[in-house]
Amino acid sequence: MKIAVLPGDGIGTEIVAEAVRVLDALDLKFEMESALVGGAAYDAHGHPLPEATLKLAKEADAVLFGAVGDWKYDTLDRPLRPEQAILGLRKNLGLFANFRPAICYEQLVNASSLKPELVAGLDILIIRELTGDIYFGQPRGRRTAVDGHFPGAEEAFDTMRYSRPEIERIARVAFEAARKRNKKVTSVDKANVLETFQFWKDVVTEVHKEYPDVELEHMYVDNAAMQLVKKPKAFDVIVTGNMFGDILSDEASMLTGSIGMLPSASLNSSNQGLYEPSHGSAPDIAGKGVANPLATILSAAMMLRFSLNQEEAATRIENAVKKVLAQGLRTPDIWSEGTTKVGTREMGDAVLKAMG
Ligand code: NAD
Ligand code: IPM
Ligand code: MN
């Protein structure tokens, strides 16, 4: 089993280091090989996703990814910006299905910005389509407007699009996942305005005929954003497009206490996967040793479960995380009165210790 380790930028290096220590402690036979990605790769090789890094990722059984990006790269030409590395990996590896489970651990009920009773026991799964939508649609660019409100003015444009097979396969992933859970799928769209999402809704409805045992509900994205903070436990599986899924998953992270708690798995059709926290490189806290490593450690657990067939090891890590939270240890993002503030490394140490 080979794992490609791509820490990236900012807190990426700090949090991935802790996940690697946890994986090392398992005493399983895998080989881990690291490579530069994102801004770090741009600085060293002039490209955010060097050929060698892409090759390593393609050949690995799984990829453990930290985060990429920093404000200092925001003025580079788009193809050279760090974010292109993660987008390129998703596209090149065909990682169309992004699982972002939002689970509020019992011990973190007070860390959420919502009232405890709204989030206690929360366990929802956001399934975000990851290789289509306005993220990848062509054409895009800048030009001089020939029509619209200001003909002759400079304008920018992107293309939102989804094909039938793209929607069918992500819908199947969602229905299959719901079958193993509470058998309810909420498909989030903007069918009242966008042709792309009327088509999304129509195709999801057709695929649903294959899953009569699963309940399907449709919800507009604006309402979904509101319902997520009104009554989050009414959801089970949410399936949506690339952009809406990006936004709703960050919103859902606060239901769990912090974005530093939200892991993710991005899978292709052969169950090869990339595992990363749902958050970014957090330049505001990078280098301070205070980032929460748990989303990354929990992503490593998802990697063991989904790509490496090591269910037992995955559960061992998840139980260790729960134990550490029960001990009252908290990085600043999840800290609340009466708990003990620790840094990234100390949190990693505690997880290792809890694993026994
Ligand atoms: P961000 O997720 O990096 O940070 C948002 C806020 O959450 C910040 O206040 C940050 O300190 C906090 N935060 C994030 N992760 C945390 C953790 N583990 N522990 C404690 N606090 C944490 O989003 P942003 O600030 O909008 O973006 C920063 C950079 O990251 C940008 O360049 C962006 O493009 C990039 N980004 C990359 C990825 C990725 O690599 N997959 C994901 C999101 C954003
Ligand atoms: C995420 C990030 C990425 C996205 C960016 C960095 C390209 O926000 O993984 O959620 O928008 O998908
Ligand atoms: Mn995001």
From TrEMBL:
- Annotated Mg(2+) binding lies at D222, D246, D250
Quote the cofactor binding remark. Answer: Binds 1 Mg(2+) or Mn(2+) ion per subunit.
Q: Which domain of life is it from?
A: Bacteria
Enumerate the catalysed reactions: (2R,3S)-3-isopropylmalate + NAD(+) = 4-methyl-2-oxopentanoate + CO2 + NADH
Alphabetical keyword list: Amino-acid biosynthesis, Branched-chain amino acid biosynthesis, Cytoplasm, Leucine biosynthesis, Magnesium, Manganese, Metal-binding, NAD, Oxidoreductase
Pathway the protein contributes to: Amino-acid biosynthesis; L-leucine biosynthesis; L-leucine from 3-methyl-2-oxobutanoate: step 3/4
What is known about its subunit structure?
A: Homodimer.
The entry's family comment says: Belongs to the isocitrate and isopropylmalate dehydrogenases family. LeuB type 1 subfamily.
Q: What does this protein do?
A: Catalyzes the oxidation of 3-carboxy-2-hydroxy-4-methylpentanoate (3-isopropylmalate) to 3-carboxy-4-methyl-2-oxopentanoate. The product decarboxylates to 4-methyl-2 oxopentanoate.
Name this polypeptide is given: 3-isopropylmalate dehydrogenase
Q: Where does this protein come from, organism-wise?
A: Xenophilus arseniciresistens
Q: What is the lineage of its organism?
A: Bacteria, Pseudomonadati, Pseudomonadota, Betaproteobacteria, Burkholderiales
Q: Gene encoding it? A: leuB
